């Protein structure tokens, strides 16, 4: 399929436009050790939580009563996955419908500094044969070029699950293969390198609650 860029609104997530300057960091609290390393808050933590609650309901509406295996893509997906699973659990407790869930972790690594590399490693995915005939929900923090998701989907499909759905908190508007858009999208964002809420730049910034745009000096400070 041809590569296309994501037109605004295409993903079904909350659209954050290219001209959105973000919120000033002075309006929020964040760890002092990142002073000067960030340009702006693009998505405050509270908004992430509110959107996640709704994604959980959408997933529940579609998959309620099905047994699912949640496949959390580490490391960046751990926070979103934990919060999403938490919300699905809350819905399961408080309604007649419920989703029996198992949670499994898979680790992928492809980025050096702010650049995607061709060298994608799948760690901890040796044997996923238990996925055969199961309903799988892949939970990923961010889809950029879509290369990572494409590789992961191919890998998971080989184990013949009954169904695969993908939940992605963020989708960047970059040229990407349309076939790789997640089924559930939190936000559609401009093509900036973002950090926080478990998203990292060379392993830093995972300990930041809000999703922020890294500053040029932050990139230089943590470059390897
Ligand atoms: P893709 O292969 O370009 O779609 O990139 C997906 C992977 O790259 C994600 O799983 C993230 O680990 C990482 N990534 C892409 N964009 C960002 C970003 O803006 N901040 C942090 N990590 C990112
Ligand atoms: Mg990373």
How would you portray this structure in words?
- Helix 1 crosses helix 2.
- This protein starts with a strand and ends with a helix.
- It is of the alpha/beta class and 224 residues long.
- Strand 4, helix 2 and strand 5 form a beta-alpha-beta unit.
- The longest helix has 19 residues, at 45-63.
- It is 24% helix and 33% strand.
- It has helices at residues 45-63, 78-94, 147-157, 216-221; strands at 3-5, 14-15, 38-43, 68-74, 101-112, 115-123, 135-143, 163-172, 175-177, 184-189, 194-195, 211-214.
- It has a seven-stranded mixed β-sheet with strand order 2-10-8-7-4-5-6, with helices on both faces. It has a three-stranded antiparallel β-sheet with strand order 3-12-11. Strands 1-9 form a two-stranded antiparallel sheet.
- The chain binds inosinic acid and magnesium ion.
- The site of inosinic acid has 17 residues, from strand 5, strand 7, helix 3 and strand 11.
- Residues 76, 110-111, 116, 140, 142-149, 193-195, 199 line the site of inosinic acid (IMP).
> Percentage of helical residues?
10-25%
Give the integer mean of the pLDDT values.
90
Indicate the structural class.
alpha/beta
H-E string: EEEHEHEEEHEEEEEH
Number of strands: 12
Instruction: Enumerate how many helices there are, as a single number.
Output: 4
List the quaternary state of the chains.
single chain
Instruction: State the shape.
Output: globular
**Measured on Cα atoms, how large is the radius of gyration?**
17 Å
Largest beta-sheet characterization: 7 strands, mixed
Strand content: 25-35%
Q: SSE layout and pairings?
A:
Blueprint: E1 3-5, E2 14-15, E3 38-43, H1 45-63, E4 68-74, H2 78-94, E5 101-112, E6 115-123, E7 135-143, H3 147-157, E8 163-172, E9 175-177, E10 184-189, E11 194-195, E12 211-214, H4 216-221
Parallel strand pairs: 2-10, 4-5, 4-7, 7-8, 8-10
Antiparallel strand pairs: 1-9, 3-12, 5-6, 11-12
Helix pairs in contact: 1-2
The protein binds inosinic acid and magnesium ion.
